[in-house]
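User:
Note these tokens:
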Amino acid sequence: MTLLTHNAMVSGFVDSLQEPRTPYISPKRLSQALGVKVANLAQLTGVHRNTLSNPASERLQGRMRELVKVISAATELTGDVDKAIYWYRNEPIADYGHRTAAELVADGKAEAVLAFIRDLENGARG
């Protein structure tokens, strides 16, 4: 897969999450992309469920951006958005107590997951 093709795939994924006619990520669209109920998105983003009723909430937007950033980085590694989402939600990471990327991001540890992905990329490249 070329870098251009990959960038278009990630960009298309990110674009599909936009709340219509706003500069925000849509909680509804993100939950659909992840295959979870909107109510479960609160748990995945580490915010109170009532926060989801205000898509413009800076805290919610920040946490959703972190989640999207990790999935985008995982997509670069896997070459496939669906594989990246599956990894994000299900694959335990031994270096972090066998917790999933989703659990770590919900706990505010997105940077640790991004560092882990960079380490995988660097290892894969030799």
Notes: The radius of gyration is 14 Å. The chain has one domain: 3-125. The longest strand covers residues 92-93. Helices lie at 3-15, 27-34, 38-45, 58-78, 81-90, 101-106, 110-125.
